[in-house]
Predict the structure.
Amino acid sequence: MHTAVTAAAPPRWLTNTVAAALRQTAIVVVGCGIAGALVGGIGSRLVMRLSALAAPEVRGTLTENGNVVGDITFFGTIGLMLFAGVTSAIFGAGAYTVVGPWLPGSTVTRGLVFGGFLLALMGRSVVDPGNADFVILGDRVLNVAMFSVLFIAFGLVASGAVAFLEGRVPRAIERSPRAWARVVLCALPIVPGLAAVTLGFAAWRGVALVGAWAAMVASAALVRRGLQGASRLLRLAATGVLVIVLALAGADYVNGVATIL
C-alpha cells in the first residue's frame, strides 16, 4: 500500500516547479496590489484633485461622468480609489506576468520599462481624445502629463514591491495544505489579470501578447530539453510580436496625445 502511494505521488521536481511558479505569481499579485492601492487608487484621486485645482474657473461644472468639478465626497473618493485601485492591480498583475520575460533585472530599470509598457499599451484608454474632461479641466499639457506619469509610477512601485517581497518571502513553500492554500489564494487574482490583458485591447492585440508570453514560457522549456536552437527561434518570434503590438498601441497613444494638445 505504501509503495503504491509513493509511486502515485508527483515527482519532486514537478512539485518544486509548481511551488516556485506559485510563489512568483503570488509575489507579483501582491506587489501589483500595493501599486494599485498607492498609484491606481490614491495617485489617480490626487491627479484628479490637482486637475480641478488647476482650473478654478470650471468649479461646479459637470465632468463627462456626471461628477461636479471640485466637489469632493467621502463615498465618491472611496469608490474611485477602490475601483481604480482594484482594476489597476488586477490588470497590472496580468501585464507584469505577460511582459515579465522581457523585463530587465535592476529594480528601477525594470520599473521604468514596465511603466513604459503600461503607458504604451493602456495610455490611450486613459488619455482619450474623446473624453471632454481633458478640454474642460484647465491645462491640457498638465493633465496629459499627470495621467501619463501614473503609468510610470505604477511600474516603479510594482517593481519595488516585487523586489522587496522576493527578498523576504521564503523560496521553499512549507509542504502543508494550509501553506499551499495561502499561496494559491494570493496567486488567484492572476486569472482575471491574464483575462483582462487578453480581452482588454483592440482586436487581436491582447491575444497576441498572451500568445507571445506563452511562447516565451515554451522556449524556456525547450532550453531545459537541450533544444537551444528551437528556443532561440521561438523567443525571436515572440519578441517580434511584442514589438509589433507595442508599436501599434504606442502609436495610438501618441496620436491621442497629439489630438488633445
